[in-house]
Every structure is written in C-alpha cells, then in structure tokens.
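Issue: ligand-bound run for hypoxanthine - logging full I/O for the record.

Environment: standard queue, default settings, no custom constraints.

Inputs:
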Amino acid sequence: MSTPHNQANKGDIAKTVLMPGDPLRAKYLAETYLENVKQFNATRSMFGYTGTYKGKEVSIMGSGMGMPSIGIYSYELFHFYDVENIIRIGSCGSFKEDVHLRDIIIVQGACTDSNYAHQYELPGTYSAISDYSLLEKAVEKAKEKNLTYHVGNVLSSDLFYHADNKADKWIKMGCLATEMESYALFANAAYAGKKALTLLTVSDSLVTSEETTAEEREKTFTAMMEVALEIATKFAFFDFDDTLIHGDSGGKLLKYYLKRHPLSVFRLLKVVYHYALYLLKIEPLNKAKSAWLYPLDYMNDQEIEKFYQEELEPCYYLNVIEELKKKKAEGYIIYICSASAEAYLRFCKLPVDEILGTKTLI
Ligand code: HPA
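Outputs:
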C-alpha cells in the first residue's frame, strides 16, 4: 500500500511520528538518535525513517512548510498508516519580549488566519489544541531538563512574509509566537481521534529582531528533540500473580510438581524450616521463598514450559490480557514486573518486551 505522497507500506511506520519541517533534518535526526534505522519514504524527497529509541519504535518524517503540506502528510499518517501520535518539532518567531531566542514553546493551542477548518462545516470557530497527555509529559520532561519553556497559544499563519503588521492583533490576544503548521496538525488529529503536540524553538523574534546562530539553534533543537523522543517512549507495567493470572503462581508450581512427584513432599520440611527462621528474624524471607521454589531445581526447560502452558495460561484474566495487547498496539513498552520466578515467567508468550521477576539459580 502507498499513497500519492508516501511510498511506505502499512506497518513500516511507528505509532508515534516526530515531524520536523525539513526532510533533511528528519534524515539527520534519524541517523543521529535512532538505532536500526530504515527509510520508508523518499517520494518528493519528503524523507521518512523508522528506528528505535531506547528500545521503542519511533518514526521521524519531514512535514514540509505550511498547513497544506503538514495537512497532507499528517492526514495520511493518521488515516492510512494507523499512526496514533504526531509530535511536530519546529521553529517559530517570537511575538513577545519575554519569549527569548532559543526558548522552547510547548504549544497548547493554535490560532490561525487560514481557512483550514472550513472543510468541517462547523457552525462557528474551531479551537485547535494539542493533546493534554502529550503536553503534560512535555512539561515534565522540560522541567527535568531545566529548559526555559513557555506553554500557550501560537499563531499558525499561511504567511511567513506579512504585507502589514496584522500580527499586532494576535499579539494582543496573547499568542506567544508565529509558525505555519500546528493548526492543521491539531485539526487533523481531532478529526481522526488521534493525538498531536507541537514543540517549537524560538529561532527569531518579530519584536526584538534578535537572531540565533546556526550553532545555537542546533543546541536548543537537540534539547527539544530529546524531550520529543522521551515523550514518545511510554511504558506499561503489569504484575503477574493476581493481575495477569488469578491465584499464586508459586503455589501452583508446587502443587503441579507434588502431583507428579509425591515423594518430594519431605522437601517441604525445608520450606517450613526456613520460614520459621524468617519468623524468628534469623534469616531474610528470600531463603524461605527460594526453598518454596525447589521444584525448579528438578525441572528441565520443557517441563517448566509445560507447567506454564497447562497451569498458568488457563488462569489468565482475559480482560487484563486484552488491555496488555491494546497497550502494546498503542506503542507502549510492556514490562512484567513481579515477585514470581523468571524461570517460568520467561515462557510467557504474551507480547511483552521485558520480564523483571525473581531470579532463581536455574
Ligand atoms: N514566521 C516568522 N518567523 C518564523 C517562523 C514563521 O513562521 N518560523 C520560524 N521563524
């Protein structure tokens, strides 16, 4: 499958796409920040790449300049490639004296002089806003990184060169800066039921006529890019016992083993012994826990796998499994984080990225 503007096949593009305006910047960012990079588009030189950042799949693609351009690419990403989140990373001209060059603007809303929203035939004016969950994460990350940032409204204009000083009226209405894409991106996201955010670095000022050097722009752009990439990385943690399965997996293992090897029951004395020492505060609890898991010392991989399939899989809470799969499809990195033993958790066939369980000697 491809579109007139994108040669990618479905599945080539991650759930989260970062969009700088310049396709060569997309190339540079993908090559600098991502691992296992694959190019998915070169149509009209609007380069697009998918790779991984800290293990999470992310795509970076140019948006071009202006609302018609980002309008086309973001529409196709949302509607034809199942993309869930688009984060525009761009530059803007400051409208305010206290919004300085190199500051970051986390865009909350976009006003516009374009007629982009006329297509929806609304009986009024549409307010294009960013997604709050993405915005909140961006604010958290910007704070963590000690960046100078502003959150607010911007003007998405059809014009870079204005014939007169019409911008004054937008400044009076509190717009922090001007750029040319966010309104269309946010409107497309709303229409598709998806999420979008814009992060901007201030590259010039319409009020003080200061300008940044290429090197300064690069430095802030890097900080902004890191914020965007870290927002794109989402984690979901699931416990195992009484969360993914009902009941206690350690107890099920013991029962399973005793049924097959009844004579091993005398080993339970060792469990009782260590548990008594724990109660007497002579030993830590992990000794008793290790003793409790003694069947693992006698079972080979095939037997443990069989135990997992026969005893644990039937105990899955189906609604929780559905939730886990949904999160995976939305691009989360999935962890199972549990006190149960990795020795059997590793036979879990659910779409899990990482298992953090109790390590046993096996
Ligand atoms: N307008 C004015 N200045 C800018 C813009 C813009 O759209 N983008 C970056 N600096």
